[in-house]
Amino acid sequence: MGRKTGSETALALVIAFINRSTWAQAELARVLDIGVPQLRKKLLEMQSAGVPLEKEEDPPQVYWSVPKKWLPDAVQLDSSEVPRSRS
Fold it and tell me: Are 63 and 25 contacting, i.e. CB atoms less than 8 angstroms apart?
């Protein structure tokens, strides 16, 4: 596992939850290439900072979710939908 700064991990988490609203904790840790304890700590920090993360336990799994409209007024586009600038 690589070492990541707290801000790199937080940004990677935001991107992960933009792409998918629910993650199994172990799968998310693998995708982010961090340990489960580090992931759990960062998710709890973000939750206490106001990110609307919801935790659901179904042993042995733990799932983390954000509400469908957690980024109000945001629009997600596929990269193919974004016009390229002409240089």
Answer: yes
